[in-house]
Amino acid sequence: MINAIGLNVEKSKQLAEKLNILLANYSIFYQNVRGYHWNIRGQKFFELHVKFEELYNDLVLKIDEIAERILTLGHAPEHRYSEYARVSTVKESAQVEDGLAAVENILQSFTTVITLQRELLGLSDEANDEGTNALMSDYIREQEKLVWMYSAFLNK
Question: How many CB atoms lie within 10 A of CB 55?
Fold first, then answer.
């Protein structure tokens, strides 16, 4: 059976389920970065405060794009933070005032979402879903560069 955009219904359901997990991870990641932005203190305050704001603004756009992709596939995006907390492998951060610790947490979160996005690349390829595939590919390319930059900041 084929859905409204010409994809297999069962494969679209599997993609939507995995996209909802990605949505949960992005939502927790987003809120963590907001907390880093609000609570950062110390020597690198001005530099990191701006970078964290840039990052959370980007994350909120991706959250919306992922939710819209789930809808395009014919399914409903999850919206409950209780469900996000249950399924997300990115965990809520405690208040983080230390910029270096915040950047470490950001790098760990990128590892999580990039890994999920690579899984989605495989699923979307199997489903012949170019829309999801292109979205994940764009995110991975962009985030790999951010991982390099944040790692360079930490001198890793």
Answer: 22
Closest by CA to 16, choosing from 83, 82, 76, is 76
- 27's enclosing H/E stretch is helix 9-39
- Count of CB atoms within 10 A of residue 2's CB? 9
If one counts every other C-beta atom within 10 angstroms of the C-beta of residue 103, the result is 21
Nearest CA among 22, 12, 17, 15 for reference residue 84 = 22
- What are the angstrom distances between the C-alpha of 15 and each of 53, 89, 139? 30, 18, 16
**List of domains in the chain:** 9-153 (1.20.1260.10)
DSSP state of 105: H
Per-residue pLDDT tens over the stretch 83-120:
999 999 999 999 789 999 999 999 999 999 999 999 99
Of 27, 36, 12, nearest to 112 by C-alpha is: 27
For the stretch 14-23, pLDDT in tens is 999 999 999 9
